[in-house]
Amino acid sequence: MIVMKFGGTSVGSPSRIKEIASLINSPDNKIVVLSAMAGTTNALVEIASHLYKKEKAVALSFIEELEMDYYLVVDELFTKSEFKSKALGKIKTHFDFIKSFAVDMFTLSGEKAVLAQGELISTILLNCYLQERKINSALLPALDFMRTDGSGEPVANEIKQNIENALQKLPPANIYITQGFICRNPNGEIDNLRRGGSDYSASLIGAAVEAEEIQIWTDIDGMHNNDPRYVGNTHPLSNLSFDEAAELAYFGAKILHPSSVLPAKMANIPVRLKNTMKPGLEGTLISSQSDGINIKAIAAKDNITAIKINSGRMLLAYGFLRKVFEIFETYKTPIDMITTSEVAVSVTIDNTDNLTEILTELKKYGRVEVDSNLSIVCVVGNFIAESKGYALKVFDALKNIPIRMISYGGSMHNVSLLVNKGFKIEALKSLNDKLF
Ligand code: ASP
Question: Are the CB atoms for 395 and 351 separated by under 8 Å?
Fold first, then answer.
């Protein structure tokens, strides 16, 4: 069994859906995981925001606009009227469901149900289209097997059990089509794995069915060694270890959702990043294999805020860091980088939703300084402590760039540097020149 996940752009138009149908039409058994068509989840978020504000008429007009877009998609996608009306009927049911939320009380669970419709509709479109082309496939509803716990985290053993049961109930097919992103929470309500979560779904499904490979299909030919938006002549990496891929995904490589590496790593299932436009290319293979000591790639992550806590109390004290970290834990705010000196500790965060509360608490422990609009530039590879010269190369490349924080040695795979966002592109370019 292989798992093939297609993102929003890959299902973004009738012609792209047709391409997917050709790509998946092979004899091997597969589970195809789809995102919503590009733009749909954002449109549904907007609809939900109007529903929250009780702007029912505005919400309804947005819903109808989206519904019309889908009717045009159906018209272009299908040739036979039988399949056209079948698809239209099903899509209408989903839009009627969305419209049923235009009532006075709109809640978070209503929002989650509305957001789920994008994936439900894209999978209907592909499944009906395959039927029209007489390609044997079956829908495998993600809401029947994908489960999260009270903290919104997936429950691997339940997912495994549920998916086995669900597959047994379905007619035999070598193509099962399911929804990324959506799940049910412990109350049985429709929920999701957070924005961009379809990659995570694919990885969880791959682990649950012990797939041979998890393929993530996008519009670029794998994970690149630098950010192609800012640096010329980047190239796709043929191999990455799970740890290297996790660092790159977390620190800015947009091609893969950071959460999606772990389930595959735990189950030791290779993940392949492939390009729908050039399916013949190998793409990037992420696996437990590491191919030697070297610098692999550079990535950058924006919107970073640094917080420095200066405290006399840290001098010769223990327990200080615990108190600082507890504050971030209380406000569910992950820390990305950390550096310490005898009198101060600096940390970075990218989620500033609770910054005011965090700062109020931190001030109890000392003087607090905050810098925003920073970027983390992250050099990823396989460096071992004995290998010499990597730090020198990195620092030499950045000799003209003011560096706010440096993290080296946290893992064998990452050197992270914090710079002002204005220096990010220069840093990426000059690291590219010096390291590759
Ligand atoms: N459709 C969802 C989103 O836009 C999930 C995904 O595409 O991965 O966030």
Answer: no
Hunting for tokens 């109350």 — which residue is that? 187
Q: What is the pLDDT of residues 115-127, one digit of tens each?
A: 999 999 999 999 9
- Helix %, strand %, coil % of the chain (to 5): 40, 25, 35
Q: Residue 194 C-alpha to ligand 1 middle, in angstroms?
A: 8
Boundaries of CATH 3.40.1160.10 in the chain? 2-218
Single-letter amino acid, residue 204: L
Q: Beta-strand (E) ranges in 311-409? A: 338-340, 344-349, 367-382, 405-408
Q: Could you tell me which residues come within 8 angstroms of residue 379 by beta carbon, excluding any fewer than 6 positions away?
A: 295, 297, 298, 394, 414, 415, 416, 417, 431, 435
- CATH architecture type of domain 2-218: 3-Layer(aba) Sandwich (3.40)
Burial class (CB in 10 A: 0-12, 13-18, 19+), 44: buried
Minimum-distance ligand 1 atom for the alpha carbon of 36: 1
Strand order in the sheet with 213-218: 138-139, 175-179, 30-34, 2-6, 213-218, 271-275, 284-287, 239-241
What's domain 296-435's architecture?
Answer: 2-Layer Sandwich (3.30)
- Tens of pLDDT along 61-85? 999 999 999 999 999 999 999 999 9
Atom number of ligand 1 nearest to Cα 42: 4
